[in-house]
Amino acid sequence: MDKLFVGSIESDGVKIHYSRTSQDFPSVIMLHGLTDSGLCFSHLAYALFRLYDVVLPDARGHGLSDAPGRGYDVAQFAKDVKALASALGLQKPVVIGHSMGAATAARLAADFPESLSGVVLIDPPWFSEDLCTEERYEISRKTHIENIQNYHRMTMQELDAHIRKEHPNWHEDEYLNWCKSKQQVKEEVIPIIRSIVEGWKETADRIHCPTLLMTGNPNLGAIVSAETSAELAAKHLDWTIINFPNAGHSIQRDSFEDCKNSILDFLKKVY
């Protein structure tokens, strides 16, 4: 991948920045997680760009996109992605999302089923009901505010040392973009925390396109439990559900090769 093409579109009066690998291939949009940016998917995009037109948007409040004081709910994030696809003329792309991005992809599939060919959901924030309490929301809100403030105080060298210590087995290409994204994210994004969790079962029930759900190991930090995965498998017989036992929440980083191969297999079936 010699270079990325970059640009921006407008959604609801907000600039949404994106990077793009190529054109004239089937389209894939990759949606990053909370506090990440589109470029955090660069390593996976590199594995796909010779076969697919990969688009890497920054969600509002992240990366180089605008950070307005409104619109931090999953329904609006889905509309932002729909506006991006429309502006770029993408014909029924497959949307791959991680965490917050997976919640956005799921909502896009539920609200605009005619607009995409399939979704890949990488450990979406689909918590068990007993974990969705006001107390846990408040803890998560305060923790994310504190983390963002700490990220902004840290130098690139400090961020790099921190993430390498936490995840020493990630591919080398992951670290720089992770660090950059932490300096770019804005505190305005905090309200999305509640929105990406609330009502996820109703959203999942409205997904009728080809779906690949990737789950990790909760003991390593993954969100989707074995019980939740089993419930989804029983209800959505047409979904493909793959567990990655050696991965935590960031499956695409922790088990890159297996994750990549599963996505390529799914894309071949869809396209």
TrEMBL record:
GO cellular component: membrane
The organism's place on the tree of life at top rank: Bacteria
Signal sequence segment: none
One Pfam family matching this protein: Abhydrolase_1
Official protein name in the record: Pimeloyl-ACP methyl ester carboxylesterase
AB hydrolase-1 domain boundaries: 26-132
